[in-house]
């Protein structure tokens, strides 16, 4: 088992630079999730760790060993691909045994490891089947099983659940969490999905345009986003942003030109007198457990309030909201949080 | 759609195809059982299997059969191996790949007669050919390719023409290969050859069998190359079955024996095809 150290990692495709000096420390046994908008370089970063993508500059170390020039198969990493990438002409058993065979592992050792991985993942009934005859969820398990049998120091997952349907995704997410609990290996996981990131991660890395925007535990990122990008990326529905005339009286430190951020779930309905922000009710989405009120301020900024039950007011009426000071986020014009 | 209607709609084309096949086939079979020599038009009548006996006991028959099998077999092996190697080589992106591909494919669009003439007069000619010039530059005696190694020379020409066909088919098929599978194999520690045997070759199983079958059909009836270059000689050393049938009908004017040879060639083609389909049949179901 080993942690991971990334220093000043740069990736260029010809003249185009897509990673701009990434620094990252990952502890041994940590579950790290990379999030960020499409095209920000999550997969590229993961593939550079795996050795599938050449490193233009900087270093990747696994444990104490710099692996820049180490062959992918010798880095102690195993990867689960989004498309599963199972070998179509081999049975499930052969798929899982392939890596061990390449390493000339003795037959009974292979057998033992494949069988035990198959038991963990409950795929022992399909071992002789071809991947073609498996469902998406079963294929996903085989792909994970193929990674497990190699007993890697670091697991890499690139959006492993994105091809599964919603209920299977929830179930597999739980299984991956359980797997991490059991194996205690370092895992790096790329996803688009908020919920996956928040529930699985010990540490979330938010990327944008090949740069790390913020690293921290899910709750840190939620409560203390370093800038407005992270603030709107973490949390669903997104954080509301108010500027200038939207805000009746800003909190301490709020000056003209700053942006005030309040999460929809932190807006509290109040009287006109106590109001921090006010808006005209445009639409209400009733979700049973809670309701989302879509509003628009006098100067035209849209925002959402998450409420326990739908407001009694009619569309077009004005609603008033406040929030407790600890829940307010103030961002200076360059987007950085003033809370430090 | 209604299956009966489908069948009726298909019927005309199937009927035309059947007619297209059945008429020449039955005429060949008919001619092969009668006395039919253009030099002796008065000798006619049914003679059973005598034409077959004549054809099969012709002293040229054995060598022609062996030459045919050597020719087909070697060309198949050469084109498949070369086709695989070259198509894998040009699968990676590199500068000028488009042009390289077009040039690699182009021999396939040259008429067999023309290509045979080029090989005969410009490359293999012992006086004016390019190979002779090379030999002379090295101070060696020029090789008389067509006289000394006639069958080998024909194999080279046909392989040169047909390797592009294999490249074309394999190249397109390689592009549909899943790259992530290869990356997964790389992470599993599989090198180039292990990936080739475990992923690429199984992926190409179907295209390989298609190339095998199509080429076999064409190579059993190679004619132009032999006609233009060696005329089956020296002796019968480069005579194949097609050429032997040609000699029977156009030089000995014996249509009956030639037809018997034709029927024999059809039977041979079917036997070879049966073996090949058996051999690759398992992979065809993938
Ligand atoms: N082979 C390549 N040549 C040039 N640019 C590339 C290449 N591969 C990726 N890129 C660029 O690198 C950037 C990062 O791509 P990457 O696939 O890592 O994004 P991602 O964060 O995984 O996105 P997604 O969430 O859509 O999977 C993108 O802007 C992409 O256009
Ligand atoms: Mg990606």
UniProtKB/TrEMBL annotation, chain A:
Classification via SUPFAM superfamilies: MOP-like (SSF50331), P-loop containing nucleoside triphosphate hydrolases (SSF52540)
Q: Which organism is it from?
A: Litoreibacter albidus
Transport among keywords: yes
Q: Name one GO molecular function term.
A: ATP binding
Would you identify the family this protein belongs to, as annotated? Belongs to the ABC transporter superfamily.
What is this protein's record name?
Alpha-glucoside transport system ATP-binding protein
Per UniProt, the keywords (alphabetical) are: ATP-binding, Nucleotide-binding, Transport
PROSITE patterns named in the record: ABC_TRANSPORTER_1, ABC_TRANSPORTER_2
Entry keyword annotation includes Nucleotidyltransferase: no
Q: Where is the ABC transporter domain?
A: 4-234
The GO cellular component terms are: ATP-binding cassette (ABC) transporter complex, substrate-binding subunit-containing; maltose transport complex
TrEMBL record, chain B:
Spell out where the chain crosses the membrane.
Answer: 12-31, 64-90, 102-119, 149-172, 210-232, 252-277
State its location(s): Cell membrane
Single GO BP term: transmembrane transport
| Keyword terms, alphabetized | Cell membrane, Membrane, Transmembrane, Transmembrane helix, Transport
What InterPro entries does this protein's entry cite? MetI-like, MetI-like_sf
List, alphabetically, the GO terms of the cellular component aspect. Answer: plasma membrane
Where's it mainly located?
membrane
Q: How does it sit in the membrane?
A: Multi-pass membrane protein
* Protein origin, superkingdom: Bacteria
What region holds the ABC transmembrane type-1 domain? 65-276
Q: Which CDD domains match?
A: TM_PBP2
Tell me the protein family, please.
Belongs to the binding-protein-dependent transport system permease family.
- Write the protein's name: Sorbitol ABC transporter membrane protein /mannitol ABC transporter membrane protein
Print the organism lineage: Bacteria, Pseudomonadati, Pseudomonadota, Alphaproteobacteria, Rhodobacterales
